[in-house]
Amino acid sequence: MEKILTKEQLHAKVEHCSKCLDEKFNGKDGKKHLVICGGTGCISSHSDEILKHLEELIKEKHLEDKATVNRVGCFGFCSQGPFVKVFPEDRLYRAVKVSDVDRIIQEDIIEGKCITDLLYEDPVTHEKVERQDDINFYKKQQRIALNGCSMINPEQIEEAFGFGAFKGLERALNMSQQEVVDEVLKSGLRGRGGAGFPTGRKWQFALNQQSEDKYVICNGDEGDPGAFMDRSILEGNPVGVIEGMMIAGYAIGAKNGYFYVRAEYPIAVKRLQIAIKQLEEVGLLGDNILGSGFSFRCHIRLGAGAFVCGEETALLNSIEGKRGMPRPRPPFPAVKGLWGKPSIINNVETLADVSWILRNGGDKFAAIGTEKSKGTKVFALGGKVNNVGLVEVPMGTTLRELIFDIGGGIPGGKKFKAIQTGGPSGGCLTEKDLDVEIDFDSLIARGSMMGSGGAIVMDEDNCMVDVAKFYMEFICDESCGKCSPCRIGTKRMLEILTKICDGKGEEKDLTELKELADITKTNSLCALGQTAANPILSTMKNFPEEYEAHVKDKKCPAHVCKSMLKYVIDPEKCKKCSMCARNCPVGAITGEVGKTPFVIDSSKCIKCGLCMSNCHFHAISKQ
Amino acid sequence: MALVNIKIEGKSYQVEDNLTVLQACRKCGYQIPSLCSYMDGKCSLASCRVCLVEVVGARGLVASCAYPVNEGMEIIISSPKAIEARRNSVELILSNHQRNCLQCEKNGKCELLEVSKLVGARDNKFMGQVTDATIDEVAPGIVRNTGKCILCGRCIEACKSIQGIGILGFERRGFKTIVAPAQNRSFASSPCMQCGQCVLVCPTGALMEHSEIANVDKAMKEGKFVVCQVAPAVRAAIAEEFGERIGTNGTKKMIAALHRLGFNRVFDVNFGADLTIMEEGTELLERIKKGGVLPQITSCSPGWINYMEYFYPEVIPNMSTCKSPHQMQGAITKTYFAKSHNLDPKDIYVVSIMPCTAKKYEKSRKEMEVDGIRDVDAVLTTREIAKMIKRSGIIWDRLPEDEEFDQDLLGQYSGAGVIFGVTGGVMEAALRTAYHELTGEDFGKINFEAVRGLKGIREAEIDVKGTKLKVAIASGMNNAKVLLDEVKAGKSPYAFIEIMGCPGGCINGGGQPYVKPMFLPKEDDNILETYREKRASVLYSEDERQVIRQSHNNPDIIKLYKEYLGHPLSEEAERLLHTHYDAHREKYPD
Predict the structure, then answer these.
(1) What's the whole-number mean pLDDT along residues A174-202?
(2) Chain A contact present for B52, CB below 8 A
(3) Of A304, A346, B332, B529, which has the highest C-beta tally within 10 A?
C-alpha cells in the first residue's frame, strides 16, 4: 500500500476505503457480502473451515462477481456462533456448521432466499429473526469499544480506515497536548480495567512530568475467569486500540507504547502484529506521523499467564523482564513507571474508547451513561444465562436488563440467585440489586465492583460458599507471594472455606473467616490482595443463611458440596430398570431388575452423579 | 534538603522531605515495628506489611517503610486500627513459620520474635498448613531453611545491591513462594560467593552460617592437639556479642576466653597476615621487576575468590597465588610448628576463628592441603565462637585483660597484620613492606592514609622515592566490578589492586555479629551507617599500639624464613603457601 505521510493522503485513503466498505455493505457493487466471525470462540467452532469452504465454493461455482467473503471480529453472541452475516440484507445466520455452507451458497447466494432454519429463534415467541439488530440480545447494546468488531477485517487496515480509523488521531494532532487531555477529561472516561480511575486525570499526571522518555502501556493481560472483552476487541479491531494508544502517546508526550497481552491470546497478538506492521509500512507508526512532528512506535510484550501481571505495577516489572510482583505506591507509574520513566497504563477497552472519543467528541461520550460513569461498558456475560457472550451497554443499564433482556434470563426455568461482577476481585449481587443502574460507584456501593467486565450469572443450583471457594482457589494460586497478608491470608481463607464445604465447619470458623477477609483487605500491598476477600465478604453478607446451613446443619442447600449431599432413589418413581446401577462406577447401587426399586449405598457412593444423569425417569435426586 | 512539617500522634515536627514515614518517625522518637525494611528504614518491597500506620487522607493504611513524607502529613501510629493491622500481619507470618524457636540458632537474635513481642501477637492465631520447606545444608558456608523464611526479601536486596549478583530471588508463587537461588538449587550449585551478607540481614534463622561447633567439639573429645587461630577482624566485633558497644576492642578478653575453652594453642592469624605480606609483596615486586602480569590482585578474601572464579576467570593471571593468611598459617602449623614440637600433623586440628562464612568453603577446597594434610580443619565465625564462650559459662565482663596470644613460634605479629581486617588494610600492609624492599628503609610515617576509608572504590598513587605506584582498592563486588572490567579490557592503570568480598572488608564479614538496631537500643540512630567505621577504628588503634608495624620486621617471620622457608617464594614457600585457581568453575564440590 502507498505511504500515508500527510493529512491529505490520509483523507484520500479514508474516503476511498469508506466508499469501498459502504459498497460492500449496501450491495452497490452488485455483490453479496458475507462476513464470518473470526473470534477465538467461533474459530474453535470451525468458523475458519466455514470461511475456507465458502471461498472454495465461490471459486468453484464462479460466483466471484456475485459474492465476496470476509473474516471479521467477534459478534459477541458467542453461545450462538459461528455466525455468517449476509449483506446487503443484513441477514444473520447463527450456529452455522461447515455442512451448511453448500446451502448458503445455493439458497442464499444463488437463489436469493433466506435460510430460515439458520436464523436466530426467539426463545419466548419462537419467531425467527432475520436481522441482527432485531435480536433482543443486541437491542439494548451500543457499540463504542466494540466498534468495528464483526464488521471489518481486522487484518486489513484499509477496512479500519473505511470504518473511520485515524480520524481521532488526526483530530488530536490538530489539538495541543493539553487540549487532548481536556477532551478525555470532558468525556468523563474512567479506566475500564477495574478501578475506574478517570483516564484524563491519569494522563494529566503523566503530561505534567518532565521527561525525555515516557511510555504508554496497554494492559491486555485480561485474567478474570470468564472474561474476554479485551481479547475480542484486540481480535476484532486492533487498529482502534493502536489509535487510542497513539492519541495517549501524543497527549502525554510518549514516543513508545507497549502492548502487554497474554500469551494465551495468540489470535489477538497475531492481529495486533499485523496491524502494527501494516501501519509501519504506510508510515502511520514511526517518525513524524502525518507530518505533525509526532513520532510513535508500538511494541508487544507477552504475559506468561500470571493474573497479578494485570496489576499495573506488576505489569511494569514484567515488561522490564522482572518477576511480576507489584511495587509499592507512591511513586505512581505516571511519575515513575516503566524503567523509572513516567508511564500511563490503560486497559484495551479504555484505549478503544479513546479513539472513539477523539473521533466523535468527548461531549458525545459524556452524553451516554450515568452522572459519574460515562459511555458504555463491555461485559462478558456468562454462567447460568441463556445468551452467553460479549455485551456492550451504556452505563446505567440495569442488571435486570443485562441478565433478562439481553441475556435472555436463566436457562431451564431456574431461579436467578446472584451475579458475580468484577471477577475474583468483585462480589455477588442478588435479586434485590437487579434494578441497580450499573456504574462504577453503584456496584462498589453494593459490595461488588465493575472490574474489567466479567459478569457471571448464578442460579439456585449454585452454592455460594462453593462459589467463594472457587474464587479463593483462583486467588490463592495467583497471589504473587510477595506480601504476607495476601500470600498467607488467602491460603487461610481457602482452608476455612474448604473445611466448611467439607462439612467440618465450626461457628468460630465464620468469625475467623470474616476476620481474615478484613485483614487481607486492609493489609495487602496491591489491589489483588486488597480485593481478594470480596467474594467471601459479599457472599457472607448476602447469603449468611447458606454459610450457616453448612456450618450448623451440615447441609449444602444447593446440593453442591459433595460431603454434605447424598443421592437418593425415589422408590415410587423407580422403574427398576437398573440403568443407574449399570452406570455406577463403584457398584454402590443394588436392586433387582423389574422386581425391587434400586437403592444407593451411601457408604460406597462417591457422589459422581452418573446415576442421576442416566436415570430417564428423574427418580434420583440429591438431598 | 528541604524540610516539611508533619504531625505524629498529633505532635508537630519538622523533618527532611526525602524521608520515609518510618525514617521520619524514628527521627522524631517513634520506632514502628517492621521486618522487611532494613538498611535505613527505606524499603523498596513493602512486603511484610508490618509497619502499617494511618496517614490522614491516604487510601487505607500505608506501609511506613516505603511511603514518603510530605508537607502537612498527619501520621497516626497507635490508632486501634493500625495496632491491630500490625499485629495481624505478624500473626499471619507466624502462622506459616517453623516455630521451633527454642532450638533455633537465631534464638535471642530473631527479629520476628522481637516484633511478635512488640505487636502483641496472640498464640496460635490463624494456624494452618505450612509451606513445604527446603533445607539447603549442602554449601559449606551458608545454610538455608525456607521454613523459617518470612519472605521479607532483604537477602535478595543485599545480594543484588551489595554484590551485584542476585543469586537469590522469589521462586514459585502464592503460598508456595520461597526465596531461593534459581530453580531452588542449593547455594552449592549456584554461583554464590558464600559471603554471607544475606545472613547478616536475615531477620530470622532462615539463613545461617553452616555451624562447625560440633566438629570442633569432636576434635576436642578425641584428644586432638587443637590449635585455634583468630582473624584480625574478630577482635573488632566479638565484644558486641556480649553486649558491649560497637567499636569496643575485644582482643584481650577474647584471648582469655579462648584460653579457657581448652585450645592447646591460641594463635593470631596476624602472623599469617605478615607471612602473606612477605609472599604477596615479594610476588608483586617480582612482577614489577620482571614485567609480569599487572595489576596484581589480592587473594585473601575467599568470597572474592569464589566470585572471581565464577564471573571473572579472565583475571586469574592477575591474581596473587598466595593462600589467604589463615590457610598459610594452618600449613605452617602443621609443618614447621608440628616438626618443632614433635607432633604428628595428623593429630593437629586447626580451628580458624573468622569473620567470614566463605572461609568455611575455602578451607575445604581441594588445593588447601599439603601432602594430604589439610591446612585448616574447621572454621568458626565470630558468632559461633561467641556461642561457645557463652555455653561454657564464662562471664565476659569478668574475663581478665592481661593475657596474650601464645608466644610459641607463631606468636608475634605486626600492626600491618592487624589492619588486614579492614578494606585497604592488605594494601597498606603490603605498601609498608614494599616500600622497604624498594628503598631499603621503612616509610617514615608508617601509615599510608591515602588507602584508608570506607568508600567502595578508592585509588591512590604512592610515591616510593620517585617511583610512582598506582594502586586501587574495592570492597563489595558491585564496586569490584568496575576495577575488574578495566583489568579485563587491559585498561587497568594500577600495579596492585586489593579486593575484599564484603563492603568495608572483613570487619563487615558475613560471620560477624549482627547489627540490628532493634537489639541495640543504646547505639546511635545511624548505627547502620557508622558501625563499619567503628569496627575499623578498633583495628587501626590496635595497629598504632604495636611496636612492630611492618610485616618484614616481625621477628617470628624472620625466624621462620631463616629456619624453615629460606626466602619468600622459595620452593618450600610455594609448596606450602601458594595456590591456584579454577577457571572453569561451575559449582562447588559436593
Answers:
(1) 95
(2) yes
(3) A346
Structural domain containing residue B113: 97-209
- Give all domains of chain A, ordered by start, each with its CATH number: 31-139 (3.40.30.10), 176-366 (3.40.50.11540), 376-459 (3.10.20.600), 464-551 (1.20.1440.230), 566-622 (3.30.70.20)
pLDDT score for A56: 94
How is residue A99 written as a grid cell? 455442512
Helix H or strand E encompassing A436: none
* pLDDT given at position B39: 66
Give the pLDDT of residue B590. 43
In 3D space, the residue among B491, B438, B422 whose CA is nearest the CA of residue B236 turns out to be B422
B583 within some domain: no
Cβ distance of A519 and B92 shorter than 8 Å: yes
Please state, for a pLDDT cut of 90, what percent of chain A lies above it. 89
At residue A254, the pLDDT reads: 97
Query: Which pTM value belongs to this model?
Result: 0.92
CA distance B334 to A116: 101
Residues in chain A closer than 8 A to B92 (CB atoms)? 484-485, 488-489, 492, 519
* CA distances, A279 to each of A20, A298, B104, B525 (Å): 19, 10, 63, 59
3-class state of residue A390 by DSSP = strand
Q: Do B151 and A480 touch (CB under 8 A)?
A: no
Whether residue B195 is found in the same domain as residue B288? no
Looking at the structure, tell me whether residues B460 and B471 fall in a common domain: yes
Q: How far apart are CA A127 and CA A136, in angstroms?
A: 12
Instruction: Identify the pLDDT of residue A171.
Output: 96
**Collapsed DSSP state (helix, strand, coil) of residue A120:** strand
Please report the pLDDT score of residue A378 as a whole number: 95
CA distance B248 to chain A (A): 38
- Report the catalytic residues of B: 280, 283, 300, 320, 359, 362, 367, 506
Mean pLDDT of B12-22: 95
Last-in-domain residue among B38, B63, B94: B94
Same domain, B237 and B195: no
What total of structural domains would you count in chain B? 3
pLDDT class for B443, splitting at 50, 70, 90? confident
**What is the arithmetic mean of pLDDT over A294-298?**
97
Same structural domain, B472 and B506: yes
Average pLDDT for residues A2-24, to the nearest whole number? 92
Q: Looking at residue B19, which CATH number applies to its domain?
A: 3.10.20.740
Residue B494 lies inside a defined structural domain of this protein: yes
Q: Identify whether B589 is part of a domain.
A: no
CATH number of the domain within which B509 lies: 3.40.950.10
* A485 chain-B contacts, CB cut-off 8 A: 49, 88-89, 92
In terms of Cα–Cα distance, which of A34, A37, A136, A151 is closest to A95?
A37
B272 and B310 together in one domain? yes
A-facing residues of B in 186-205 (CB < 8 A) are none
Domain end call among B78, B94, B110: B94
Interchain proximity B173–A522, CB inside 8 Å:
no
Mean pLDDT (whole number) for B428-433:
92
pLDDT tens digits for A82-129? Answer: 999 999 999 999 999 999 999 999 999 999 999 999 999 988 888 999
Query: Does B126 lie at the interface with A, CB-CB under 8 angstroms?
Result: yes
Contact residues, chain B, for A471 at CB < 8 Å: none
Whether the predicted pLDDT of A169 surpasses 90: yes
Q: Are B253 and B202 found together in one domain? A: no
Closest CA to B209 of B510, B571, B540: B510
Q: Å from A552 to nearest chain B CA?
A: 21
ipTM exceeding cut-off 0.85 for this assembly: yes
Q: Residues B220, B203: one domain?
A: no
Residue B107 has pLDDT above 60, yes or no: yes
The backbone region for A479, taken as left when phi is positive above 0, alpha when psi lies in -120 to 50, beta otherwise, is beta
The string over B504-515, giving b where at least 16 C-beta atoms fall within 10 Å of a residue's C-beta and e elsewhere, is bbbbbbbbbbbb
Nearest CA in chain B to A491: B175
**B419 and B446 assigned to the same domain:** yes
The number of residues in chain B equals 590
